[in-house]
Amino acid sequence: MSNNAMSSTETDIELLVRNMLSPECISNPYPVYKQLRAHPPVNGLLDYPPGTVPGVDTPYPAWVVTRYEDVDYVLRNPEIFSSEDPMQANSSAPSLMLVNHDRPRHTALRNLAKMAFTPKRIHDDIVDRLRADIIKIVDASLNTKMDFMVEVAGVIPAMVMTYLMGLPREDYKLLVRWANAFMVSSDFTPAERQACNEELFHYFVDKVEKRYADIAAGLEVSDDLMTAFINAEYQGDILSKEEVTLFCITLVVAGAETTTYFIGNLMGVMLEDPSWFSKLNEDRGLIRPFMEECLRRDGPPQRLFRLVLKDCEISGQEIKAGDWVAFFMASANHDESIFPEPENFIIGRKNITKHITFGRGIHHCLGAPLARVEAEIMLNVILDKCAGVDGSLADSRRQSGGLLAYGFSTLPLELIAKQA
């Protein structure tokens, strides 16, 4: 290959990276990921971590890591790739717990979080209430043309957060707005994003402060996650009041929006191939494999950032300490060398557990079981109540506000009620 041809190729790839924040790429990034996987990491992505504000905060140029093997390498080596996010730390956003911590503090925080995030509290105690609420939501939506993202998917995860943390149910609408702004995936102005960050922070400062005061006064308080974070103790370690506040914020921004997109993407698959409705209805045992393949192919979380602590090499490309790395779990989940025919929706893949939508290692998402429970109950309720789903993907639109999440901004459809 001539030097001119080599230079042209490099320029094309660099241009591809610079254009990753275009609305076209954000709404359908997978063709771009496929082109990038054919090359070692490329430097130059100027994107924004959660909570930062485009137009206010200045992004660092990041190496784009897209191959499964390379993404896995970043995830498995936290001693090389730090989660402490200097860009977010310098922004107006509250720092995220666990997400933005390294060992040894990460280990201590995760142990404390596990004391609060028990299967009983995030599953057993909420399943019946969650099912009853989803039944009400679906019943109110039957036989009406609606935007599923607004009427169903956008309600369930934020509503779950309200009763996980003992908040007023009607506040779920506030949580939805704040999460959307924080996760840089909606069309907010810089001023609106900053205002949402401040509102979110002060809301939980006030709620946590009151909970501490009620406990100190000997009043009876609900046994929810907020109380559990306050009371959590592991080997003599406890959370500070600020850390409790930030844990509550982390749950909302990390859980509400991504689960909303996950639920919407599940319904998108049903519109893409209507035969899935009858298949799942006839064999409910297919629901979990259906969900996992959706998490692999259409998983909402696209990428995360890491700060490089030590000189290293990724696919032959030298990466220096102090560099910034953006690694794309969504691209790894479409790596042909791991998942053949990655764009096709194929349930029953023997290696489906290798998908890394929820991360891996010390940063595997604590909320993954909760997201799966919400989605599974929703699918079962819809299958119980409905004879089918009517709609066309041609009428839908994927969000194009930011590259952090893949999901629908609008998903018009109609849930057709079963005949009595």
UniProtKB/TrEMBL annotation:
Pfam families: p450
Gene3D superfamilies the UniProt entry points to: Cytochrome P450
Keyword Metal-binding appears in the UniProt entry: yes
Highest taxon listed in the record's lineage: Bacteria
Statement: the UniProt record of this protein carries the keyword tRNA processing: no
Keyword annotations of the record: Heme, Iron, Metal-binding, Monooxygenase, Oxidoreductase
UniProt-listed SUPFAM superfamilies: Cytochrome P450
Similarity remark: Belongs to the cytochrome P450 family.
PANTHER family hit by this protein: P450, PUTATIVE (EUROFUNG)-RELATED, PULCHERRIMINIC ACID SYNTHASE
Name of the protein in its database record: Cytochrome P450
Originating species: Zhongshania arctica
